[in-house]
Amino acid sequence: MTVRVHFLPDDVTVDAQVGEPLLDVADRAEVVIPTGCLMGTCHACTVELDDGEIIRACISSVPDGCEELTINLFSDPTW
């Protein structure tokens, strides 16, 4: 199933497959999500979904059951 992923504040939209890693989707959309440990413990890749849920992009994938997904990128000057 194809999900339309919209990255904010960059206002970039790309199609993705359910289960596709979010970092791969962001890379294909040419959107930079900072990473650190790539295990979810350093929180460098923290993003917020449109429903307010905070997730770590490095250990997350495109969820099933939605047609559109909005991802709000945080700006953290330390990364």
From TrEMBL:
SUPFAM superfamilies: 2Fe-2S ferredoxin-like. It comes from the Bacteria. InterPro entries: 2Fe-2S_ferredoxin-like_sf (IPR036010), 2Fe-2S_ferredoxin-type (IPR001041), Beta-grasp_dom_sf (IPR012675). Residues 3-77 form the 2Fe-2S ferredoxin-type domain. GO terms for molecular function: iron-sulfur cluster binding. Pfam families: Fer2 (PF00111). This is (2Fe-2S)-binding protein. It comes from Fischerella thermalis CCMEE 5318. The lineage of its organism: Bacteria, Bacillati, Cyanobacteriota, Cyanophyceae, Nostocales.
